[in-house]
Amino acid sequence: MVLYKSIYEYAEAEYIVEKSRFIAHASPAETTEEAKLFVAGIKEKYKDATHNVPAFIVGPGMEHQWASDDGEPQGTSGMPILKLISSEELTNLVIVVTRYFGGIKLGTGGLARAYTHAAKLAIEQAGKCEVREGSAISYSFDYSYLSKLQSIAEDSGYQMENITYTDVVSATFSCMSENSEQIKSLIADITGGKADLKSEEKTLAKYKI
């Protein structure tokens, strides 16, 4: 089940217009605290910049939204970035666009377009994704089943992770939650019911779109 859409990973993108340099930083953020820490980190790293304009949306229902113009004319920077994120139906991410003023004023419309474009480039670089509810199913099983389970993993809709080798093989089978019963039946068929189910936990997984 798709819970929400977000970005896949941290990314930066640079955009130059009328000698002003815009550096957009986009990062996943699961909480408002995480988003605020990211903003603070960028402001510290680029404290010599003319402006560091932040915006974030957090929460599965996009319930926590915040932006600042950081000294730019009101409504020309933070809010356009926030509107872009919202229009893309993305959440759990933070964007900070750093600006080094190039000496030529862009006007209110030009500022809004520049900040929006820089933020859009960073989102594209980070990659959009769906965050889905998943299952992590842990088994132990005999070595004789390992190669078969590995060879059909991609086609069968699971990933084998955290594989350890002792007197038996232990591994975690990660899949989408709606496929968990099907995966368990498949493993039972392949091992003749001899795989030992250790645990099953709900997880969150990102899938690029």
Could you characterize the architecture of this molecule?
- The chain folds into two domains: 2-126, 2-Layer Sandwich (Ribosomal Protein S5, domain 2); 131-208, Alpha-Beta Plaits (2-Layer Sandwich), CATH 3.30.70.
- It is built from six helices and ten strands; from the N terminus they run βββαββαβαβααββαβ.
- It has helices at 32-45, 78-87, 107-126, 146-151, 153-156, 180-191; strands at 2-7, 11-17, 20-28, 51-58, 64-67, 93-100, 128-141, 159-165, 169-176, 196-208.
- The strands form two sheets. Strands 1, 7, 8, 9 and 10 form a five-stranded antiparallel β-sheet that branches. A five-stranded antiparallel β-sheet has the order 2-3-6-4-5, sandwiched between helices.
- It is elongated.
Number of strands: 10
Radius of gyration: 23 Å
Outline the low-pLDDT stretches: none
Count of alpha/pi helices: 6
Describe the global form.
elongated
Name the CATH class of the largest domain: Alpha Beta
Q: Any idea what the CATH superfamily of the largest domain is called?
A: Impact, N-terminal domain
Mean model confidence by pLDDT: 96
Structural class by sheet pairing and helices: alpha+beta
Helix content: 25-40%
Tell me the major beta sheet.
5 strands, antiparallel
User: How many independent structural domains?
Assistant: 2
Question: What do we call the CATH topology of the largest domain?
Answer: Ribosomal Protein S5, domain 2
**Helix and strand sequence:** EEEHEEHEHEHHEEHE
Distance from N terminus to C terminus (CA atoms, Å) equals 15 Å
CATH architecture of the largest domain: 2-Layer Sandwich
Strand content: 35-45%
